[in-house]
Write the structure tokens for this entry.
Amino acid sequence: MKLLEVRGLKASVGGVSILKGVDLEIDRGEVHAIMGLNGSGKSTLSKVLAGHPAYTVTGGEVLFEGKNLFELEPEERARAGLFLAFQYPVEVPGVSNSAFLRLAYNTVQASRGGEELDPLEFDDLVREKIKVVEMDPAFLERSVNEGFSGGEKKRNEILQMALLEPKVAILDETDSGLDIDALRIVANGVNSLKSADNAIVMVTHYQRLLNYIVPDYVHVMDSGRIVKTGDKGLALELEERGYEWVRAAA
Amino acid sequence: MKDAACLTRLLGNPAKEDAFSPLREEAEARAKALALPGARHESWRLTDLAYLYGQDFEPAAPGVAPGIEGIRGTWRIVFVDGRYSKEHSVLPESGEVSPLGLEDPALHDYFGRGMKDEVFAQLNLRNFEDCAFVRVKNDVKQPIHVLFVSTKRDAPAAYYSRMLVLLEDNANATLIEEYRGEGHYFCNAVTEVMLKKHANLRHVRVQREGNDAVHVGNTEVNLEQGSHYDSTSVSLGGRLSRHSLHLAHHGERVDARLDGLTLTDARQIADVHTRVDHLAPNCRTVQRQKCIADGASAAVFSGNIVVHEGASGTDTKQESRNLLLSGRAKIDAQPQLEILNDDVSCRHGATVGQLDPEELFYLKSRGLDEAAARKLLIYAFAAEIVDRIPVRELVESLKQRSLS
Amino acid sequence: MSSSTLQHLVNQPYQHGFVTEIETEVVPKGLSEEVIRLISEKKNEPEWLLEFRLSSYRHWLTMEDPSWAKVNHPPIDFQEIIYFAQPKPKKELASLDEVDPELLRTFEKLGVPLHEQKIMAGVAVDVIFDSVSVTTTYKAKLAEVGIIFCSLSEAVKDHPELVKQYLGSVVPPSDNFYAALNSAVFTEGSFCFIPKGVKCPMDLSTYFRINTEGSGQFERTLIIAEEGASVSYLEGCTAPQFDTNQLHAAVVELVALDNADIKYSTVQNWYAGDENGVGGIYNFVTKRGLCKGVNARISWTQVETGSAITWKYPSCVLLGDNSVGEFYSVALTNHLQQADTGTKMVHIGRNTKSTIVSKGISAGRSSNSYRGLVKIGARATGSRNYSQCDSMLIGDKCSANTYPTVEVQNESSIVEHEASTSRIGEDQMFLFASRGIGQEEAVSMIINGFCRDVFMHLPLEFAVEATKLLGLKLEGSVG
């Protein structure tokens, strides 16, 4: 049984059809990259998988460890081990980052039968995990994402990934808006979290992230479908020849 | 009861007999029922009307205006003591600007329909002589200058200025509404504006009445779907002035911008009241009001934004910035929000402060004397509003005024 | 997330709606000079206090019910109200052990145990049941450092000179309609006096309970902090569920002399009426503090969750130079509740400072208004105010209104006011969900976060209670 199986997935937003039949299989220990132009549907795919309420599934199915993903609420998906790193992390004024992280951690732990941590224990844990993304612990005491720079927001997303230990982590345009140093830090964070038991799906526009997190598979999306799949060489070829080449070939 | 006596006096002359007579009669009845604001009238609480009630205003007899300085490159319609002056007006042949005639169909649909609970607007309807009529069907390139002038006379006089502005679907226009005068008088002004679908009006209002004048203006703006109303209102003159501006967003995606500047000095009292009703979804209002009070003057700003049920997607921003330059002056600011819908983004802010000592010091260290440095900073504060006026000549003349 | 789910999450049943079966002695309903004389007589009051009441009553007769607030209610028939109700004393009480056990159980149930040993550590409590004070704890201990903490009736007997000096000195009987009414008929309240230089060693607290149907509650609290003294005072209140509206018209007066510091916290949870707006308390309260001396500080913190109608503006008169006024408020309205609340900061002295933080949360078909006045007088050189008023709307049938007034007459002062409106965004809810956090906890956390700037000013026990009251779990964001 694969970790995640997407079959003929169709979805729309505000009555406009975006995904028009996506097929994708992801297994433990794999790193996938989904590439495509703006508007190709790659961000929609990640939001639909995480259960964003603005998107309506109109066809197809998704199995997560053999179970129908669409029967789960977004929070249940998260507890089951699906993680989305947001392209635009949301700001939550007034709610402290550390309180938010601890609540998320304890909720997910509880659902998995793990141990919940009190604020002091959690503080130890989070200070350990925060090293993964080289983030200043001062950010723990600020409101969730409020006033964070683009790079800080993205690091905060990877910190959440480190805490929640998902089975499938979808990184939606995690490289966008990052300078080269921040990109390296985020990529190192992700690489250190990669294991034989989990899978990573990078949704990206550019090849440069793939220099740091090397994919086993590269998929190209166009007009709501995956039109081509290859290995990491495909990404380089895309960089060189452009998306028109895939489109022409497809 | 000075307010009651004042009302009696303002209604003392027989109403003009013309095709508007039925409207005038109704207006008189309403004005009597409403009565002039007394001390307990909430919306007038901060504005002392003693200066108005303490004078006996006679209806203004026709006067003769001396030479009138217009603004180059504009169409111009001039009213002297409330009466249309053909001599001073320069009207386009295409007919967009005219005195309101009885044959105009807009009369029945748009004239005198609102402001039923505004006693001064009802007095205007009862007593007005002539009304400017601006009706634009597509685009007018030249700005339209509507000028109300009061002439100097021996006894205090009351006159009524009035205009009706109608922009049809997709029409575009720039309008300058201006008040000037000399001596002791009471100008009661009413402006009705209707923007049909996707119409676009750039509305500039300049109140530079004489130092001893009383000015009470009521403006009502009705906005249909997709229309765009951009207003700059500058209030400089008058011993006592009040402007009430009411906007209603009736259609979706209306976009309104309200900029206002009030400058007061000596013993002036200037009051700006605005109310914006969001009645339809996805409309926007951005408001920025500035007051600068010096001498022993008083500036009042009360701005209310009301988001009604069903007006989802509303986006409003309201700012009231105030500069208090003297220990004898007074500023009152009431930025208000009433929200009956959860899908909104509404913000407002108000500040009262003085010139930044750091900035003053900086300018002085570059050789400016105290007075010049202050003037420069005051102007900079005002410029944010004034500089947006799209008529250069007017900007320059207002600049002269606020620097003097 | 749909607004109906959100509504569900904020609809917590009222926990304190039970009635205590206890024999009560009431003065017949209605108001007249005779009734006032009767109340005064029952309380064995001195002549000057009766005169205070009668002159207030006569003034009240000349006044009109205020109409400027954004609240609607049918006219109140002041002759239908019971002005005095007290649990019938079986005999003169010698100690707490002789208090009717039914009363003791009532307060246990409300979480306010009356036995000192059971009380939350370090809080002295005065407990008011309908019109009378049931008990005051830790009185003797406080007396050791010279603090007087007792019911107002006792203070009238034991410290008449202090009561006479300060009663009505901050809120004169003629101040407003309900203050005049209170001055005529007030029946009980707390009295605190912190002498010069004393820092009150524990929080002082009054717990108010309306029990009798048809009775009004007209308590009056007077707190005086002398030079250099400081005190933190907490006030809590509940009432049973009745289908009729009950009037609560209290007056609270605070006086802070030179360098004194008074912190007054309220968690107001009067019965709010049912989901159709039937019943509930009309909470028409006048609270005002006078910073009489230099460097005095008065801080109001309130969490308003109850009452059918709240009409309340805890205010500060900043008379002393360098004095400080603060107002921190959370007001939650649901169903058909109406709240018109805010503050007045009147700057008279030089270099006076005030801060206003108001958070309004509206749900259901409720109406929640902030009304405030910041007035900087001509002499108040160098004064500053900062105000922040935020509203959160839950659902599209409620309203949130902001009516601040700023009046400045001094050119060297700075006033800043900011307001914003928000709702719990779909994106925020999705973020929480995608991190495994359920809706209930997400809403709780967001609302707590929204109120954080206020909760941080509450004493800890109150912060806990306030958080619970908002239908939330403490998990996380406070502290």
